[in-house]
Amino acid sequence: MADPKGFLNHGREVARTRPVEERKKDWNEVYVPGSLLPIISKQASRCMDCGIPFCHNGCPLGNLIPEWNDYAYREDWAAAQERLHATNNFPEFTGRLCPAPCESACVLGINQPPVTIKNVEVSIIDKAWETGDVAPQIPERLSGKTVAVIGSGPAGLAAAQQLTRAGHTVAVYERADRVGGLLRYGIPEFKMEKRHINRRIEQMRAEGTRFRTGVEIGRDINARDLKKRYDAVVLAVGATTARDLPVPGRELKGVYQAMEYLPLANKVQEGDFVTPPVSAEGKHVVVIGGGDTGADCVGTAHRQGAASVTQLEIMPRPSDERHPTNQPWPTFPMLYKVTSAHEEGGERVYSVSTTHFEGDEDGNVQWLHLTEVEFVDGRLTPKPGTERRIPAQLVTLAMGFTGTDRENGLVEQFGLELDERGNIARDADFQTNVPGVFVAGDAGRGQSLIVWAIAEGRSAARGVDRFLTGASDLPAPIRPTDRALAV
């Protein structure tokens, strides 16, 4: 193990963030560059090398956390990155974006602040890129089999990289103009600079993966025609149907889905626009939805110069600490979280529901009317006499997603069966009811975390490899039916 007394000698330290007023003026990542490396060896030493490391179970990828903690403590960065990549194709993504269920499952976390697993992870991979230890893994021979991967989010990229390294010829189809899916156009630059995606894509190109952007299967190419071209198809199209808010005034100008608003800000950083077509500048902004996507809208509005930002959540404010019965260790608890975006300002309002929007004579939203709600007989019910209105000149809906896209025709053209939740049904090998067509990520699981998406991509790749060759040595960290550890 690292240091037998590390967790006794050192407290938890996390990455330092740049001053709020400084970072709100740019779109760079919020963390102080290089601030982790001087402290990360001590932080890695806090890992106790448990007899039963529950962090393995907390992470669906099965990351070998005690092993790379030990290497990081000893500053053996080459060995650390090898152990890291053994289970995770893209640790620079998860180290920045994952909410770290591994830390919630850390044994040290029973009665102390857990190990900073996420910070150690990102330190290892950033160091590996710096030293040139991340190299293309080109297959020794090709199988002669071809695979189409539809979607270039984390699930699609993971499946594509695994299958390319297995020797298959893989083409990734992406309907957007750039590769990355929600990593590219859903995650703001201040959470993850897109150079990290670009660097991985270049590695994948060098390994042999091909990319076709600006092509939407179902519209630009009929799904049945695509299937005829390839020996297997992987659907990694996500769960992109956003939950709407059917209240009076929803049609007013200025009310947008979060995924209509966020990509435009990212396109400015890509150089496509000088200013975004939809901007929060000088406006009173209301974000409906208290999750990570809502926080992304909050941080984006701050950087665009919003006059005010208010985030609404229908559920009560989460607790600051675990509840020993409802959310015991090692489950992933729903706790009150202050993200970097929340540090930058704005108001958070809990236990409220939007009743309607009010606009001006030109059809622009101006006010949002809401009421407080409470649980009555297990149902959220409006509290009489609590109605009020707040200024709202830009509203973003960040209330989650309800299933995969049905409008482009892909599901119908393939003839795919859906489960009771509207996700694409699959068997134990991640194969749909159509032979040779597999599904990975949110399209089959429903809206989930980035670590689950990568785990799905890796597991689906094994199913595809077995389908094409009759056997597979590729790892499969999860089954389609696996779910996060819960009470």
Automatic annotation (TrEMBL):
It is an enzyme of class 1 (oxidoreductase). Pathway: Amino-acid biosynthesis; L-glutamate biosynthesis via GLT pathway; L-glutamate from 2-oxoglutarate and L-glutamine (NADP(+) route): step 1/1. One of its GO terms (molecular function) is 4 iron, 4 sulfur cluster binding. Its cofactor is [4Fe-4S] cluster. It catalyses: 2 L-glutamate + NADP(+) = L-glutamine + 2-oxoglutarate + NADPH + H(+). One of its GO terms (biological process) is glutamate biosynthetic process. Gene3D superfamilies: Alpha-helical ferredoxin, FAD/NAD(P)-binding domain. Pfam families: Fer4_20, Pyr_redox_2. InterPro entries: 4Fe4S_Fe-S-bd, DPD_II, FAD/NAD-bd_sf, FAD/NAD-binding_dom, Glut_synth_ssu1, Glutamate_Synthase, Helical_ferredxn. Residues 38-69 form the 4Fe-4S ferredoxin-type domain. It comes from the Bacteria. This is Glutamate synthase [NADPH] small chain.
